[in-house]
User: Fold this.
Amino acid sequence: MEHPSQERTLVIIKPDGIQRALIGEIIRRYERLGLKLVALKLMVPTEEQVEGHYTLDPNWRRVTGEKTIKGYRDRGLTPPSEDPLEITAKILKGLKKYLTAGPVIAMIWQGAHAVELVRKITGGTEPRGAAVGTIRGDFVPDSYVMSDQDDRAVRNLIHGSGSVEEAEMEIPHWFKPEELTDYKVTHEDILYSKELKGILDE
Ligand code: GDP
Ligand code: MG
Assistant:
């Protein structure tokens, strides 16, 4: 089995994150955990790239539609449609508009439990409910109530892969293999070596 420290995840700083001047803040939060940046680029995505990204998992349309319908019910509201695919089509339209509105930064972060820990630091999808101390919870006040009323995607600053399987599909969607750099950072010894050697003179 691959060592856990080799796990990789895709992070995208969405256009609002760049406009809010949060690039440094966002990178700092993943970097200080001990994750290693192995690829990074600034770009304006195309609508095709955004649609391709969200539909890499063939179940995403159905699952997101069902989750959204449940979200409406939990809030005591009637969903705009009973058809999960119709709901997702609307969400996808909003996401395409959101993510092509300006430059984004796509990054790959590597380290132990990278997928799970990036999600933890990033916070829940809806910023209004995201925990204090997470990036979404700390920096953005958006909510589904407001984004649905205004018929747009919820502005949550960041995308982070939802699972290792998702990361494995998303990374090649955004990066060519030669855009990744394999290298060491010295703190990896402290984080991952079996024995803490080399600190004291022997
Ligand atoms: P993420 O991985 O935390 O971004 O969340 P998902 O992969 O579940 O959803 C992707 C995107 O779909 C989110 O960033 C939202 O824009 C949208 N979305 C997901 N769930 C809902 C929902 O319940 N209501 C609305 N309006 N949009 C949603
Ligand atoms: Mg997701």
Observations:
- The chain has one domain: 4-175.
